[in-house]
Amino acid sequence: MELLTGLLTTAFLAGAVLALAALGEVLVERVGVVNLGVEGLMAMGAVTGIATVTAVPSPILGFIAALVVGAVFGMVFAFATVYVRANQVLCGLALTLMGSGIASTIGRSYSGMPAPVTFQPFKMPILSEIPIIGPAFFSQNILFYLIYLILPIFFSYLMFSTRHGLNMRAVGENPAAADAAGIPVNLMRFSYVTIGAALAAGAGAYLTLAFVPSWSDGVVAGRGWIAVALVIFAGYRPIMATLSGLLFGMITALGFIGQARGWPIAPAFLSMLPYLGTVAFIIVPVLAWQKMRRAMAAPASLAVPYYRDMR
Amino acid sequence: MFSSFRIQRLPSSHPGIALAARLAAIVIALVVAGVGIALAGMNPFDLGARVITASFGSSFGMEDLGVLVIPLILTGLAVAVGQQVGAWNIGAEGQFYAGAFAASAVGLFVPGEGPLILILMFVAGLVGGAAWILIPTLARAYANVNELITTLLLNFVATLLVYYVATGPWRDRSGMANSATPPLSTSVPEFWGIVHWGFPIAIGLAILVGAALAFSRWGYEVRLVGSNPSAAKYAGIPVRKHLIMVMLLSGAIAGLAGMLEIAGTVHRLQGGISNNFGYLGIMVAVLARGSPIGVIFSGAFMALILNSGIVLQTQGLTTSVVLAITGFILFLTAIGDELSYYRITREKPEGAA
């Protein structure tokens, strides 16, 4: 019982980082852009979060600052990929290198010390008394509910139940047709790439302000790449992205609990679990669910720049 | 009469402009880095002079560069070879570790020394690197799973694996250092100063692969698969076979980089032996526009950048600055590449003869 509670609590905490970053990337990829810079954006968000709360002791301000920094980097990336139409893979890799490099340069002075203030969990009356799910789900911090409930439901509704969402998906599937129908393709792409980048940086801030909570070099540890992979696994759906983030939180939690309880497996192997799990989870579904392929397919114009004047 | 200008996008980019764009990207990135350094309260010209003296001022500096160039040429070549067949191998870092791991296993546990062990280590490095890319390769070839993410994720697994054996079962139990294996029994002999024979091997391999791609039937087919897979399939070229073979070759070359690094430079296996060589290899390949011969030159350039990072470290800056500058150059290069497709033409006024 105690084991299960601990597992779920850690899984929810660890999963929130991946869920938020993956949700952001879903928005980016739905409009037809691949942003491989999530890892770098998360590093920037993580260091912005810790630097802000060191100056001003407010975790919410730290989170907002990370969103702003992420949006600025996102705009630079979006300008290059959407308006200049530069290669998205190269720009994404460049963003990862820049973000990780700048973050660890800035982060050196914050290295090793715990975050002075963090997002504090609050217990919901009565609900938090429920065994197992009470402590795991009803005794968390405010961001937690934003990440697991508000954002995925909001974006899922937006994407699949509004005209704006239909336009957004049209831009990712067939930008020429969308353009002919009067949808501002480039503006749509620019906006969602920016929002997605902001959310990725926010996921980084969550890492240093709620989950770890401190900065150290390499604190992101490939979570950005796992988030990019989860988008494929989640079939480009906001709610599925959140749930798969939780699934990988579970896998991470399994590793933590194994280490804490001294399971006879070397910690290095337990740390490999999320990476190996991700590789397995993007290969196996392709082989297993042939029928689902169409429903889970990537937007048709993913990573294809749109040239209005190309005839 | 007014003449107007028109911007035209051409079907192919001009190689001279693409090269100029790379040079411009490097210059802009260095200027921005210089301004950043100046803002941090240091003199960028002074630092630049130090970097130049440290790299070219003495034969020691040149030898340091020569040692750094070896893994960079090889990881760059690994990425470039993958690009030729249309595959993004972002996992050179992991294959580097896997090659180093396999070669160390031979060096530590196969009794004896001398050329035979060296050859075995060489083979182990190649096989280790190829084995590390096997799953992403098969997933791409048979299920069309994007190799970009699978190769990258395995980097973390390889890093953890090497860290585990170097601090755990293979740890040197005799000395004070407990985060590395004992020295390997055999090493790659020196070629010039501290530069080992990996140097001519890396350059020779780049030339060999470049020649094979440019002049052989195999190379022609591979390039066709890379540029237009459906046309290649229609022409009866075994697309899948070429894809698998070239991706495995790419992994093997990165594994060889790892083998040469431990057998020639470090002489023992430890965590973090790769100075991000795998990731910098992507940069080397992109700067060379995927050309195996070009990789020799862009590898040398990256060695200079990396070496200046080591010089900057003594001046109180971190090597992560180098990573950031590298990323910035890559970003500007991507933009420059796209712009090199455009041409500004002067349009003749309507009605003029």
Name the overall outline of chain A: globular
How far apart lie the N and C ends of chain A? 64 Å
CATH class of chain A: Mainly Alpha
Structural class of chain A: mainly alpha
* Residue-averaged pLDDT of chain A: 89
CATH architecture of chain A: Orthogonal Bundle
User: What is the number of helices of chain B?
Assistant: 13
SSE class of chain B: mainly alpha
Describe the sheet with the most strands of chain B: 2 strands, antiparallel
Taken from the alpha-carbon principal axes, the silhouette of chain B is globular
User: In this structure, how is the largest beta sheet of chain A organized?
Assistant: none
Q: What's the pLDDT, averaged over the residues of chain B?
A: 88
- Percent helix range of chain B: over 70%
Write the layout of secondary structure elements.
The complex is a heterodimer of chains A (311) and B (353).
Chain A: H1 2-30, H2 38-55, H3 59-83, H4 88-107, H5 133-137, H6 142-161, H7 163-173, H8 175-180, H9 185-211, H10 223-233, H11 238-260, H12 267-288
Helix pairs in contact in A: 1-6, 1-9, 1-10, 1-11, 2-3, 2-4, 2-9, 2-10, 3-4, 3-9, 6-7, 6-11, 10-11, 10-12, 11-12
Chain B: E1 4-9, H1 15-39, H2 44-56, H3 59-84, H4 92-109, H5 115-143, H6 147-167, E2 190-192, E3 195-196, H7 198-215, H8 217-227, H9 229-234, H10 239-266, H11 277-287, H12 292-314, H13 320-339, E4 342-347
Antiparallel strand pairs in B: 1-4, 2-3
Helix pairs in contact in B: 1-13, 2-3, 2-12, 3-7, 3-10, 3-11, 3-12, 4-5, 4-6, 4-10, 4-11, 5-6, 5-10, 7-8, 7-12, 11-12, 11-13, 12-13
Q: How would you explain this protein's 3D organization?
A:
The complex is a heterodimer of chains A (311) and B (353). Chain A has 311 residues and is mostly helical. Chain A has one domain (2-109, 132-293): ABC transporter involved in vitamin B12 uptake, BtuC, CATH 1.10.3470. Chain A has helices at 2-30, 38-55, 59-83, 88-107, 133-137, 142-161, 163-173, 175-180, 185-211, 223-233, 238-260, 267-288. The mean pLDDT of chain A is 89. In chain B, helix 4 packs parallel to helix 6 (147-167). Chain B has a domain at 66-295. The model of chain B has no long low-confidence stretch (mean pLDDT 88). Chain B contains 13 helices and four strands. Chain B is mainly alpha-helical. Chains A and B meet through helix 4, helix 10 and helix 12 of A and helix 5, helix 6, helix 11 and helix 13 of B.
